[in-house]
Design brief:
Helix content is about 45%, strand content about 10%. By secondary structure, the protein is an alpha+beta fold. β1 and β2 form a beta hairpin.
């Protein structure tokens, strides 16, 4: 029996639906995902995809978490994480330097003006002082059942 999907590969199941470019992309992605890959632990070409992001080595039994369609090497992942952390730290350092420059530029007199002024003693004495019992939340009243 001959192959039915020589040109389109695994995307032949889609028939004429979804367009040519989408079917070609699906065929390329599935060919990579369903193929065997090199295990980073034992270096055997026996790594297969068990689920989304979970890869299993049939040779040494190693189970790894990686990207969805192709296992990424740990070195590449470490490099990406290091780049992201470096950019985040650079942004935080820039924010701290910017806030320090703003504080140094403002005179101390302006910073004191921003503080709220204390209320006069006359207004403080007029405010009613609440007892701790009044601060407690009230319990909801129970409704009577209608018969």
């Amino acid at each position: 029996m001959s192959k039915r999907t020589k040109k389109v590969g695994s995307s032949g199941r889609l028939g004429v639906r979804y367009g040519v470019t989408v079917r070609k992309r699906i065929a390329d992605i599935e060919a990579v995902a369903k193929g065997r890959h090199e295990c980073p632990k034992c270096k055997a070409v026996a790594m297969s995809r068990k689920a989304n992001g979970i890869w299993f080595c049939n040779h040494c039994g190693a189970i790894l978490a990686s990207s969805s369609y192709m296992p990424t090497k740990p070195v590449a992942v470490r490099r990406e994480v290091a780049e992201v952390l470096a950019t985040a730290e650079a942004k935080e350092a820039a924010k701290k330097e910017g806030s320090k420059k703003k504080k140094e530029a403002e005179p101390e007199a302006e910073q004191e003006e921003l503080k709220p002024e204390p209320e006069p003693e006359e207004l403080q004495s007029e405010k009613p002082k609440k007892k701790p019992e009044e601060l407690k939340p009230e319990k909801p009243k129970k409704r009577k059942k209608k018969e």
